[in-house]
Design goal:
2 copies of one chain form a homodimer. Chain A is of the alpha+beta class. Chain A has helices spanning about 5-15, 20-25, 35-50, 55-60, 75-85, 105-120, 120-140, 140-155, 280-315, 335-365, 370-400, 415-420, 430-440, 450-470, 475-500, 505-510, 510-540, 545-560, 565-575, 575-585, and strands at about 65, 70, 160, 180, 185-195, 205-215, 225-230, 240-245, 260-265, 270-275. In chain A, β1 and β2 (about 70) form a beta hairpin. The two termini of chain A are about 50 Å apart. Chains A and B meet through α10, α11, α12, α13 and α16 of A and α10, α11, α12, α13 and α14 of B.
């Protein structure tokens, strides 16, 4: 079965979890109305469902063969990409000066979820172009912007991020690609890059590579890295000195070509500096932060799709009888299948909430809130990326499990979601790197005030549930409060460890800390949605989705948030292994 | 990298976790000595490492093509199978009357772990033959035994389990295959079966199918199912009326042919009844219980293999610097990588302990302990199957994560382990079915006395750690005690729900209950191993594996056992969703 964008649920999350109504009322989003926003989501949903989603299995089966340096995308992809850019989707939140529509990132976040639910392999190409647009907008010269931004915003050309080399993955200080000034303002780039997503393809006439390389005599390590724009075709129409030298045979996202790139076989590819010399990493981080949130949204999208497929199957497949049933029951009526489906749905909704709240912070950074919004988004970005992609692995695996033996058979499609999802916790900074980023760089923001403000916002959700007092919430308030208090204590522990110069103690618990953060933040998001629904029910609305949201928040609190106490113990009292680890791994 | 059977660690677990020393001292295992047992493990390890392990990737790449009804196994498999059966491994714990070696199941369990670590796809064929041997031994007529057991025990022929039909998976009451008496003592079988592992192959001259089918006028449901032995070639050498009609394209275990089987295209395949008419399910359960423990051991095996590969990679790959390091560090020195590797190792060792303790119960059933041993094994079998295969999914996924981007590239092999492992939680009864079996059939054994005795045995491990008092245990005793008390309370809740005729309340928490059971039992197993090592250290032994076992038990207690409290809450207070599930899944 295919994907149907859950537009009503997404709009509800935007409005009542991520504060779209408030943002619009405050005037921070210009003349955008709720009706506009919903109309955009509906149209995006139509394109995702009917144009992109049908490509997903085709991409998995055909892959992207490489012959003589030319990569062919799967059947139908070129036409779909053309339809998609002609709809203006590529530049949805890009600057109007360069042809963008200047819409809030929050709206774009919801759309990105849809493209990637429809096909991660397809959605990945514009995801990278968007990162390049941001880097170029922030750091590019006026000449480079004039030459490239318009075509990138329209999607007529795509872009890549060329970071990784065989010896330099998470650790970019080790990279060796070189750049030399050519004397005419351009540079000659030589080196080999690996894992370059859409490094070569046939969707567009040109590809704009953003490449990290070292200048001669640059300082060692990450302070000697510069960022260059290196197009496949030069402004004069000639082919640049770069090529795709190989393509990976991967577990998933077969529709997305993962290329090895060779720059400078014939003396050096021509490139232009973006930003200052030796400041390339800072420029690259501009695009990586945006990309990280979008990877989180890929996780939400594929989790949603896996959930939809599993639910459809569970309603159709009959096995066994539930208590008192007279005939064979659809498996959706069995408690263990319900637990799996609700786990899938609840984690997906929690991750969606976290990603949207992160996007809201980025929008707020451009409004009256300014830096505080940006800091909030910075804090939440590693949580959005890692939590949403960790649960994507769990949810897609549960999707296989709901299908039973059929889940292991490739024709069913459930296994593809699991294979496709598996890259998300790895690329754009492994989830281990995200946890380190959260603990060592984000918790200390403003002396801890940013994280404390975030915890305070979660506590308001608990107060809301207590005040609402609908019996359908069950133990929701108690469990959410316990999780937030666990997060608060774990946060104090981490800040104290960092403050007393014991980074190893903080690092040892970074991964369970991030999970705890995501669990609690996700619980607060679900509670907010449920509170809005409870208010609507009290106001006489009868949409069954309202009661469903309360039941979902309760399930999450009573069955998933309960992990918080154990995670806190792991963060605070579980770090002794760093001293004995070598020993325990020795035998 | 390939697999190296961890023979010393396995022998230590057999002796000090599963009580091999005690069993030998008690005389329950005949004249077997520790030296014999270790010699067998060493030789099995040699065969697993050098003969089978190299086939694993070959099997994944070549698969098992079907042409004109003939399935071809991957290059090298036939020769390896020949070598393996010539070593006598197939009949290790089969009865000497039929050519078996009559060794304890405990020894065979360790060997099964090795074959499957070397290649699940390879190990699966003898796993099914072993189940058929058990069913035939327990329920077959003397004539059938005389005709088939010898060749099955030697491995000259293999066997299959033909249960599933498209409409009948977990629910065998729905099956439709038919059997009619032929008047000469044999039956004519017609019907279609799916998911038949090694239903057709070229490893042996004959294949013995055990097939579930209905006699005419048999009662509806599971009380009208009979079990038949239906060989590919009949005793007179003629081909039976059955064929492989298709083969599945699967996520993993590509080296193992998963066949659709058609019986009776030309009037009916000839078969012979095993056991009594309409009692086929009881006979099949004989083989399924053995098979379930062995599937648990497949989980242990592949988890061990994934761990070994990840550890090797992490020692080799250098990225980033640890605190105070002057040059780039191997990633095994980073705290988050250590956490992943220790999680992999600790879960694997815990699952190994649970499986071995289950096998010990089966051996004890044949000795002076009798029924109590069998009841203990019955209780633990669903835990062994489900916990070991759930952690196999988690451990193999962590194995991919440790490799970073390399883990997503198929050539590395880490992804294959994850793909191969994914079937384990599904076949031989999904893990949801295992949880239901544990709660509704196993907890009530002897009025709850069996589970209480098991919990009491776990408590002795806590007392041991408290008495040992080595500082290296850290919080081990406290965390293990808390987990066991959580298990005790959750057990009381489940028994009370069953006793007061509220099966839905028990079923709602069955899956977290099983996880809690496995976590606590696994913690007790690791503590037992660590206690034996602590005693050895106090006695002056210097093997570094001793300190490593204590560190591992501590890591498990402080970082994984801490999940117990949340699981208890989910079991006891999380079941409201069964009432609201339809609602929450509706929107």
């Amino acid at each position: 079965m295919s994907y149907r964008a859950p537009v009503a649920e997404m709009a509800f999350a935007l409005r009542h979890v991520a504060g779209l109504d408030q943002a619009i009322a405050s005037g921070a989003l210009g003349d955008l109305t709720i009706e506009d926003a919903e109309a955009i989501l509906h149209e995006a949903g139509r394109v995702a469902d009917s144009v992109i989603a049908p490509l997903n299995k085709v991409g998995d089966r055909h892959g992207t063969p490489l012959h003589d340096g030319v990569v062919t995308t799967p059947p139908g992809w070129k036409a779909a990409y053309r339809t998609w850019i002609e709809g203006g989707w590529n530049g949805l939140s890009a600057e109007p000066d360069y042809g963008g529509q200047g819409l809030p990132l929050l709206i774009n976040a919801a759309c990105n979820e849809m493209w990637n639910a429809a096909s991660i392999a397809f959605g990945l190409c514009p995801l990278l172009t968007a990162g390049a647009i941001e880097a170029l907008t922030a750091h590019g010269s006026e000449e480079l912007k004039a030459r490239y931004l318009g075509k990138l915003v329209s999607g007529e050309w795509t872009a890549t991020m060329n970071l990784t080399e065989p010896q330099a993955g998470s650790d970019l200080s080790l990279l060796r690609s070189r750049a030399e000034p050519a004397g005419d303002g351009s540079y000659r780039i030589t080196g080999s890059k690996i894992y370059i997503t859409y490094g070569e393809h046939d969707l567009t006439d040109n590809i704009v590579h953003l490449v990290l390389a070292r200048l001669k005599d640059a300082p060692a390590g990450t302070r000697g890295i510069s960022l260059f724009l290196v197009p496949k075709f030069l402004p004069d129409g000639s082919r640049n000195d770069l090529r795709c030298s190989g393509i990976e045979h991967k577990l998933g996202i077969h529709g997305s070509p993962t290329c090895s790139m060779a720059f400078g076989d014939h003396g050096g590819a021509t490139g232009w500096l973006i930003g200052e010399e030796n400041r390339g990493l800072a420029c690259m981080f501009t695009m990586m932060n945006s990309a990280r949130l979008n990877v989180g949204l890929q996780g939400v999208g594929i989790a949603e799709r896996a959930y939809q497929q599993a639910l459809t199957y569970a309603r159709d497949r009959r096995q066994g009888r539930t208590t008192g049933a007279e005939t064979t029951s659809p498996i959706v009526e069995h408690a263990d299948v319900q637990r799996m489906l609700l786990t899938m749905k609840a984690y997906t909704a929690a991750a969606r909430g976290i990603c949207y709240v992160t996007a809201e912070g980025l929008d707020a950074a451009h409004g009256p809130e300014g830096k505080a919004g940006n800091d909030r988004a910075s804090l939440l970005t590693p949580v959005a990326k890692a939590f949403a992609t960790d649960i994507a692995n769990e949810v897609t695996s549960l999707g296989v499990q709901v299908h039973g033996g059929m889940g292991f058979v490739e024709e069913t499609g459930a296994a593809q979601h699991m294979r496709d999802a598996r890259i998300l916790a790895i690329y754009e900074g492994t989830n281990g790197i995200q946890a380190i980023d959260l603990v060592t760089r984000k918790l200390p923001l403003n002396g801890g005030a940013t994280v404390q403000a975030q915890i305070a916002s979660m506590r308001r959700a608990v107060e809301g549930v207590l005040k609402d007092a609908a019996p359908a919430f069950g133990h929701t308030a108690a469990r959410l409060r316990a999780a937030i208090e666990s997060l608060d204590r774990a946060t104090s522990f981490q800040l104290k460890a960092l403050g007393s110069n014991r980074p190893d103690a903080a690092l040892a618990g970074a991964t369970p800390y991030l999970r705890l953060f995501g669990l609690a933040q996700g619980g607060a998001c679900l509670a907010r949605a449920a509170l809005a629904s409870s208010a609507a029910l009290k106001a006489g609305e009868t949409d069954p989705a309202h009661a469903a949201r309360i039941a979902l928040a309760r399930f999450y609190a009573e069955n998933l948030l309960v992990a918080a106490g154990g995670l806190e113990e792991s963060v605070i009292d579980g770090g002794a292994f760093t001293e004995g680890a070598a020993l325990a791994l020795a035998s």
